[in-house]
């Protein structure tokens, strides 16, 4: 009972902290796209050009002739009423655009982080328990390479090898064009099952493999390294020695006693990887023609689509803040010793 | 949603059940359309996905040419004073029947009036049907000044009354912004309070009809069974949006798409070598140039400009910048355009002679700026590199060059100034296949301080192109434009650098594809061999 109340108090405290962060994010999102030189009207006109009168007219129509602070408060007012404005390009509400595309990014990110955890944690544990061995060297060497891999190059390499030469996986997209069903959840794995079309799910899985590997590579490397160093620290603790002295099986010592404590910093790392994932998604989505928010943001920035960029950045920041909040709350579940 | 699911299930059933019979052509397009109403937009990617498959225009470009042929208008007459264009409409044309709209009447004059008046009249209920919509191409082609009124003579006759004679008018009406919309559909959307759907669920009279769009991923069309020019040989058309050129190449080679545009020049060898692929090529309807500021000394002297032109090694530029995907330009209009004057002789590359000419003109120790665009364009894939090569060439004749650049929007804006310091690298891609669209826009006196980046106003030249603009006889116009190109070459306001060559790789199964000189990608008339 005590702990539940404490947890609630902590939750409120953390949410309170989010308020100034949120305001900061709105200013950053609003300011970022406006700091970039160039404006949407000139870019839209291109070589064809636009007369000064027409330029003024369009700026007025978009509301960009007004003072910045007015535009900013408009933006804030919009957020309060759940209206992020309409994209200058597609003329559709930014909110709708975001939620059409976000499931694709989320699905890919979840797969990538699961992939990274499933491989990274065991690899880190193995490396730590066999410290200095060839296995340790190999794992850490591979992790360093993985961490330094330029995503674009890595993605193309995998496509050329697995899709081009070996023809094991499709080149790009989310599901074979043979299958056509309306999006229900926006998650292709779920929608393909719901569609009831034979082979659709398998097709969706096969399309996910390469982008998952590409997006998961950097988090995988980070998680493996973090697990290894956290494990090494914990393995040197007195209670681990005690457990060993008691004659417990090594699997129990490592799996139960050591790993549980070592996982705390690893969870923090995984939480922080969410930001990295969304950054990596930009490149991964571009290579694999994955219709997510990463690609959408890049297009919008190039077109100086002010509402799309500021709204999109804001939404992405909110997602990252929420994930970090959840990670904080998860600590308590993993280690009951932690009190809020 | 229910209706959508039903249609989806139906389509899936036909696609899965009848894969053997249904012919589906997959096009790996390079980007997402901004919307499906072509008129508010200016990008080719959007037109490829909207105007070309879904809509028809009153007049159309004949496939593979810039010739204007009848479309939704069977014939047209121009009044003797060149001010009235009367179009006889094609009877019996049906708008698409889709799961979101069933037309109750055939195409008629009301649809034509709706199409243009929404762009022309500020108080038209569809003038701003979603927030922030504007009619950029209609404006860029000066339509608001040009069109005095559009008159419905009878149900099947429409008359455009102009404020001044304008020979390219018919070609303008073949452009994408002139795609004819269904007034009946618009009325229904207006009554339902769903006006913005006009841009998302399109209804036209074109060869293909819209089925579904999954944002940034896939667009699906099916052949229009009632198309006025006959049903298409293929049954389904799918755009698989694939932004990266290398990935498009992999998809083509793996057979995941039949056609994919804009290959990397470096990949052409591999594409040509692949046994399951064919690569088509054609000159682009564009020109890349270096525009001197002809109002600033010493560039106000044609002799100086001519000398500098002779100092530029175009072949080196074609090799390094275009990697073979370009051809040297000698005229301001591309060779695929009617009235291209092949008799014009290009300035030879001769640094020695250039040096001498500069000395004769009394120019010594000249230093100048060359502006390099910050973006890639078909007519100039790498302006920075081009500027560096020109810098090297000019240094050989004793001219020092400083290369400058700005953000793209700012570059376009600043380069318009009549007191601009330096010569500007820029280019142009044709809109309607009419020489007026290059010569008058880019080199006419009206364009000084605007699109005329050379700030060049030469009376004899301007007189010719103004005259050619108002007469409708093409042979007469051709003569004037040919002459104008001679004057241009003599006066040398630009160094004409290159026209790009466009490559189009596709599966050997694709038959009947014709490359469009205007740069669009059309799938009417295309078939797939078994």
Span between termini of chain B: 36 Å
Q: Indicate the low-confidence ranges of chain B by residue numbers.
A: 1-20
Report helical residue fraction of chain A.
over 70%
Mean pLDDT of chain A: 88
Biggest sheet of chain B, in brief? 7 strands, mixed
**Largest interface, chains and sizes:** A-B, 57 and 64 residues
Mean pLDDT of chain B: 92
The number of strands of chain A is: 0
* Spatial extent as radius of gyration of chain A: 24 Å
State the helix count of chain A: 13
Instruction: Name the shape of chain B in a single word.
Output: globular
What is the subunit organization of this protein? heterodimer
Beta-strand percent range of chain A: under 5%
Helix content of chain B: 25-40%
Short note summarizing the structure:
The complex is a heterodimer of chains A (340) and B (530). With 340 residues, chain A is an all-alpha fold. Chain A contains 13 helices and no strands.
Question: In words, what does this structure look like?
Answer:
The complex is a heterodimer of chains A (340) and B (530). Chain A is mostly helical. Chain A is built from 13 helices and no strands. The radius of gyration of chain A is 24 Å and the shape is globular. The mean pLDDT of chain A is 88. Chain B is of the alpha+beta class. In chain B, strands 11, 12, 13, 14, 15, 16 and 17 form a seven-stranded mixed beta sheet that branches. In chain B, a hairpin with a 2-residue loop joins β6 (147-154) and β7 (157-162). Chain B is globular. Chains A and B meet through α2, α3, α5, α7 and α12 of A and α1, α5, α9, α15 and β16 of B.
SSE map:
The complex is a heterodimer of chains A (340) and B (530).
Chain A: H1 2-35, H2 40-45, H3 52-62, H4 68-80, H5 94-129, H6 134-148, H7 151-165, H8 188-195, H9 200-235, H10 238-245, H11 250-287, H12 293-302, H13 306-334
Helix pairs in contact in A: 1-13, 5-6, 5-9, 5-11, 5-13, 6-9, 7-9, 7-11, 8-9, 9-11, 10-11, 11-12, 11-13, 12-13
Chain B: H1 2-17, E1 24-27, H2 44-49, H3 51-54, E2 59-61, E3 68-70, E4 73-78, E5 84-89, H4 109-120, H5 136-140, H6 143-146, E6 147-154, E7 157-162, H7 169-172, H8 183-192, E8 208-214, E9 218-223, E10 236-240, H9 245-253, H10 268-273, E11 277-283, E12 286-291, H11 302-311, H12 314-320, E13 326-328, H13 351-360, E14 367-371, H14 383-395, E15 400-404, H15 408-414, E16 423-429, H16 436-443, H17 459-470, H18 474-491, E17 494-507, E18 510-511, E19 527-528
Helix pairs in contact in B: 11-13, 16-17, 17-18
